[in-house]
Specification:
Elements lengths: L8 E4 L5 H12 L3 E6 L2 H13 L3 E6 L5 H15 L4 E4 L16 H29 L2 E6 L12 H21 L4 E8 L5 H14 L8 H12 L10 H11 L11 E4 L8
Parallel strand pairs: 1-2, 1-4, 2-3, 4-5, 5-6, 6-7
Helix pairs in contact: 1-8, 3-4, 4-5, 6-7
């Protein structure tokens, strides 16, 4: 299927690794012009160089999304390199490795998590929305989490931040719908990242259910039920997240806005 993304300019924050990297690679495969963003220039340049070597068009911008001036520089640089941005994927953020529970959570952790997730997305979006409105076309996709609607008992700061991003998505979608801009959220479930792979292998060895160096399929089958009861029976893949986001970013999805698309293998118990 032709997603009609040829020549569209996309900025994907936090795209030097993980889900963001998978997204930026997929958009480039669909002939979009992409801006790879991260804090580590070497990692971002590695992703961009590989995209370029495969015939795509990629540029690099580094910057701290919790700093207003850095975001201004980043956005201006992205536009200067690639042209007016049509597609914004707010992927940067994450839990920051938080191990907090309700027994030890601190207000400062909540403020920090809110800054790198919600406010980071707000800073970038606020600068790019006027250009999309002027062009009468745009896509904003916020990467949320299943934790927003199925919060676990731990890391409450992260769940609250992602819930805020869902609310922000719904509000913004209503505000800019008449301008030809769609705004959606995507909530991944349990996805096979390098961090998850390492964690599953550690648990397999600790519990004695599989050898730490066993094939992934063996590890997955033994450990996944300890973490989540996924009806599909497996962990999601990065490319499955990227494929869905590429569709939402395309002209083919022009009548889909204000949606929280859960990509979780049926884990969520509600519609």
């Amino acid at each position: 299927m032709d997603l009609q993304l040829y020549g569209k300019k996309a900025l994907v924050t936090g795209s030097s690794k993980g889900i963001g990297e998978a997204i930026v690679r997929k958009l480039a495969q669909e002939k979009a012009i992409v801006v790879v963003h991260g804090r580590d220039r070497a990692k971002a340049e590695n992703v961009a160089n590989e995209i370029t070597a495969q015939g795509g068009h990629a540029y690099v911008m580094v910057g701290d999304l919790t700093d207003d001036a850095d975001v201004q520089r980043l956005v201006e640089g992205a536009v200067q390199l690639a042209g007016p941005i049509d597609i914004l994927i707010n992927n940067a953020g994450g839990s920051g490795g938080s191990k907090e529970s309700w027994a030890n959570t601190q207000p400062g952790s909540w403020a920090s998590a809110y800054d790198r997730n919600v406010l980071a997305a707000l800073r970038v979006t606020k600068l790019l929305l006027p250009g999309m409105q002027q062009a009468r076309w745009g896509r904003v996709i916020n990467i949320s989490s299943l934790a927003a609607t199925m919060p676990p008992p731990t890391a409450p700061d992260y769940s609250a931040c992602k819930a805020a991003m869902n609310a922000m998505t719904a509000s913004m979608a209503k505000a800019v719908a008449a301008d030809g801009i769609t705004v959606n959220a995507v909530s991944p479930g349990t996805i096979h990242s390098s961090a998850l792979d390492s964690r599953f292998r550690e648990v397999a060895a600790e519990r004695g259910v599989a050898n730490k160096d066993a094939p992934w399929e063996v590890i997955e089958r033994a450990v996944l039920p300890m973490f989540a009861q996924v009806p599909v029976g497996r962990v999601g893949r990065l490319d499955e997240i990227a494929d869905a986001i590429a569709f939402l970013a395309s002209p083919l999805a022009g009548y889909i806005t204000g949606v929280n698309l859960r990509i979780d293998g049926g884990l969520s118990p509600s519609l």
